[in-house]
Amino acid sequence: MNHAPLQLHNVTKTFTDGDKEIAVLNSISFQAMKGELVAILGPSGSGKSTFLSIAGLLQGFDRGDMFINGRNVSSLKEQEAADIRLHEMGYVFQASHLVPYLNVHEQLALMLQMANKKVDRARIDDLVEAVGLSHRKTHYAHQLSGGEKQRVAIARAFVNDPSLILADEPTASLDSERSWEIVQLLAKEVKERKKAAIMVTHDETVLPLCDRVYDMMDGHLSLQHRETSVHENK
Prior knowledge:
Blueprint: E1 6-17, E2 20-32, E3 36-41, H1 48-55, E4 63-68, E5 71-72, H2 78-88, E6 89-92, H3 104-114, H4 121-130, H5 146-158, E7 164-168, H6 176-192, E8 196-200, E9 212-217, E10 220-223, H7 230-233
Parallel strand pairs: 3-8, 3-9, 6-7, 7-8
Antiparallel strand pairs: 1-2, 1-4, 4-5, 9-10
Helix pairs in contact: 3-4, 4-5, 5-6
């Protein structure tokens, strides 16, 4: 059976504030499909970061069910969750979090080594070329621009061949031109490599590059009905 990489069914996450119980996520149902980039918008405190953290198995929830590639992951031991994060998920953060003493090629090789996989130079070269950095693969983080660092971060997120990509404000430190380029690249790789991707963002200028856009407000997730996306026009 061909499962969606991520499914949430009536997921609720609450916090206690004194004698009050506050629902940060309120009965959320959602799925991320292969080959699509989904954006989630919302003001600070709306629950979008909590949503991404739960999707990435970085924190639990109180009620509901969540599935990764058809497997119910609602109650996992920490080592099981860590294994899924390493092998089935890729991350792109606001800051690239590159290792300072590794060059571009080595950044990707490290991820393969952490997953106990063979360092496949051809795969690394393919990804470095895909993000337009073949001429920079022996350069270190301090030798790269902000946009180039995020390109490395995207390549690194894909190197273990995960089914799900999670991007947390990946353009927050970039100007508008670089932001468009980075999300365009992310969307292209997601579609071509048939991955599912969720991007939390405040940057509405990049939304035409996304396949679906949701608003998060007061713990509720609602789909925006909007004009045809860039992808659908192609």
